[in-house]
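Anyone have C-alpha cells for S41 family peptidase? Sequence:
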Amino acid sequence: MARFIKRNWMWLVLTATIAVAGPLLARSSGETARQRSLDTLTEIMDLVQKQSPEPPAPRQLTHATIQGMLHTLDPHSNYMDESEFRLLREEQKGSFFGIGAIIQQHDQGIAIISPMKGGPAERLGVRSGDIIKEIDGTSTEGMTSNAALQKLRGEKGTIVELAVQRTGIAEFLRFSIPRAEVPTNSVYYSFMLNPTTGFILIKDFGETTAEEFERAVATLKKLGMKQLILDLRGNGGGVLDAAIGICRQLLGPDQLIVSQKGRDGRDENQTRTSKGAQLDPFPLVVLINRGSASASEIVTGAVQDHDRGLVVGQTSWGKGLVQSVLPINRSRGLALTTARYYTPSGRSIQRDYTHGLDDYYNPEDEKDAKPQGPAFKTDLGRTVYGGGGINPDYPMPTIRFNEFMVDLRFRHQAFFRFAVHEKEHFGVKPGQHADPVVLARFRTWAQEQKLTISDKDWEANLPTMQEQISIELQNVAFGIEAGFKIQCEKDPVILKALEVLPEAEALLQKKQLLQRAVPATVATLR
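Reply: yep, here.
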C-alpha cells in the first residue's frame, strides 16, 4: 500500500479534498458549501498544473481525480473513459469488430495464439505462431496484449496493416486485414467429457449468455448428456440478467435467485424463477476459483443454496456489490455501487475490503482456510457460510507451476514456440499427445534455443512438460478448444467433479422428493 501512496500522492491530495467535502455538504442546507468544495478542488488542480515540474494534461488530472473519489467508496465503483466504456459495451453485447485472432504478449512481440475459424485473419493466411511486429506501422516492442487489442479493434470494414514475423522466413509478411464482426461468445467451450457427461465453460456474462447456454445444453442433450459440469473458473461476471437467465434454466418453479439491498439495508429487490418453471433434472456440478466473481457467484450461490448441485474448486472472489452503469455523454460511463447481492439463503457475497486494497486484490492463498462468516442453511439443511465469496462443497488446492515451469512456459513461451516448430516440420494429429520421440525433439530444440534444462529438472518436471507440450500441439494445430480438451484429461478439479456427480444426482433426487411432498402437505392442511 505504501508503494501506491508514493506513486499517487497527487491524486490522494485531490481525493482527500473531495472526501472532506462530504460532511461539509451534510451540514449545509444550500449551495454554499458545495460551491466552496468545488472552488477548493479547482484551486488545487490549478496549483498542481502551475507548480508541478511535469504538469499532467487536464484530461489525465480529471480522470485520476474522479477515480480517487470513487475508490474512497468501494473497490468497484469506477469511471470509464471513451475506450474503456466502448470495450465494456462490446463485451456485454457479445461482439466487436477486429481481425479475429487470439493474441498473447510475447518477448518477441505479440504472438498469434490461434486465428478464429472463418475470421479475417485466418482467411488471409495468418497462422498460429506468427509474431506481430508492427500494427499500422507502429512497433509492438514492449506493447502489452491489451494495448495491441485496442489497436486491432476498430470500425467495421476499416483496414489494419500488420507486419508479421514467421519462423523460417527472413522478411516480414505484410497483411492488410479488413476488420469484421467477431463474436465474443460467453460459452467458450461446450463438449462431451464422456458419453454421458456434458461440459460447458462460460468465460463471462454478456447479453447473449443465457441464450448461448440454452443452445449448448440442447446440443449436448442430443449427444447423450445426462449430467453436466459447469465451469465458471476465472469468470469475473458481467451482466446480471445473464446470470438470472441461466438460473431460470437450472432451478425449479418460484425459487429465489438473488436479492439486492440498498446501502442502508432497505429497498430489497428479489428476483425469482417463474411459478410455472419446470426443473430440468440433470445432475450438476459447478466449478469455481478465486477468479469467479459477481454474476458467477450469483449462479453458484443459487445452485448451492437450493441444493440444485454441488460446487468444487476454490473459494470464489467475493464481489457482492451491485454496480449501475450510468452513461456520461454517451461515450463515457460511471459504474457506481448502488446495492449489495445476497444469495437465496441470505448470505452476503461481498468480501471485506476495509483492510486496504492490497489485501483485497491480492488475497492470501486459502487452500487451508476455513469459512469465517455466519452460517446459513440450504433448502435441505446443509450448512453454508457467508462473509465473502462462495465456499465450495469440495475444496481443492490451487495448482501452481514451480519456478522452472514458470520460466519455460511464461518467460520463454517454450512449449508454444516448440509446438509451432513441431507443426511446421513434423505435423500434428488430432488428439496427439507428446510421446517420448516428441519429448526428445523438444529437449534438442530447447538446447538449440539456449534454454538450460538440467537432468534433475527434466526428470522432476517431465509429466508436466509432457502435458503442456501436448496442449500446445493441439492449440497451434487445431485451435484452443482442442488443447483445452487435452488439459481436461488431467485437470484435478474436473476429475473431482466427475467423482462427485453421483452425489450430485442423489442430492437432486432428494430435492425433487421434497418439492413433491410440499404441495401434498399444503393440500392436506386445506
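The two ends are 63 Å apart (CA to CA).
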